[in-house]
Design goal:
The chain is mostly helical. Helices cover 89% and strands 0% of the residues. The protein has one domain. The longest helix is centred in the middle third of the chain and has 72 residues.
């Protein structure tokens, strides 16, 4: 603490405040480049993998919906034929 007071007495408060601010900026820059960039890179990789999985699930849902629509359509046609007394499947 005494060295800070001596520095303020020798160089003045504005110069010492500028040096302190410079240290703070350097510390934050170092922290961001070493810590946060690495974490963001990992998060980006995970995000890309999750997006790919969501796309695959979406494609699966579309395929299942098409299959379900086809089954419903076939059943509907069969019920209409039965209701109308349509073809019984026997040869005459």
């Amino acid at each position: 603490m005494e060295s800070i007071v001596d520095g303020i007495n020798q160089y003045g408060f504005p110069i010492m405040a500028s040096v302190g601010m410079l240290y703070l900026i350097w510390f934050i820059w170092k922290y961001i480049t070493e810590q946060i960039k690495a974490k963001l890179s990992q998060a980006n990789t995970t995000l890309i993998a999750l997006i790919d999985r969501i796309r695959m699930l979406d494609n699966d849902i579309i395929r299942l919906q098409q299959k379900l629509d086809t089954v419903i359509e076939v059943r509907s046609k069969d019920e209409k034929e039965k209701y109308k007394g349509g073809d019984t499947g026997r040869k005459k």
